[in-house]
Amino acid sequence: MAIMKAENLSVDFYEKSVLKNLTIAVEKGQIVSILGPNGSGKSTLLKTLSRNLKPNKGSVYLDDNNLAELSAKFIARKMAVLPQSPEAPKDLTVRDLVEYGRYPHQSWWQGKSQEDDQCVDWALVQTELLDMSSRIVSTLSGGERQRVWIAMALAQKPEILLLDEPTTYLDICHQLEIMELLADFNRNHDITVAMVLHDINHAARYSDCVAVVHQGKIFAMGKPEDVITVHTLRVVFGVESEIQIDHVGKLVVMITGLTKKRG
Ligand code: ADP
Ligand code: MG
Question: Minimal CA–CA distance to 24: which of 178, 185, 209, 167?
Fold first, then answer.
């Protein structure tokens, strides 16, 4: 069953058409990665899926409800979003920021509940931030800060988590740490994950489904081994590659050079 789908999305910025009649579905329980070159419309797609951007045409559905007709609170109880380069308000502690994730569950007459505290603690434990909970977010390392944003999203107790390049700017070890964290939430806490990824090998290793965005459309979507091919990499990214299968049966992509332009 699709927890989220978008049908015939078109997004134009001024004269420029960025998404062109794009259709995509995210199956419940899966990890779906969105790949594509710079400027292909990935962030635009994620913003449209999370209602941070209104499409010129087409609709987004969350559990078969039209996103345009839902309340912000209802959406935030089901969906958490981590944008491409989030910025924390100054002087907030880790715990303060993670507590923001509970806002959709609070009512103005009640304020914070015991359940809110429990969810914040749970999110801090999951992301191994409990010891750092009184640190100021801006003093943390890149990897730690990214974990705080993920903790905030988790405290929201979402059914689906959308992330835009959650590992960019992190070193290899911290990239894997984030990928493992997301895989764990997906496996053990039943959270559907849809994310824009830069690293094709991460997408191949961790995703149930890969969607490749090219010129504002879905070029291909499906299992990593069906979608991440020499042909896709050549046509969409303009690179030549060799693809192998490793000892656990996952694809490993080696980029061997730029595709020579004809003519
Ligand atoms: P990606 O995330 O795949 O790198 P984006 O979705 O950020 O790509 O951008 C796709 C295209 O849309 C780019 O050409 C970008 O310049 C353009 N674009 C994105 N946001 C805006 C905006 N707010 N106004 C004008 N153009 C935009
Ligand atoms: Mg982007």
Answer: 209
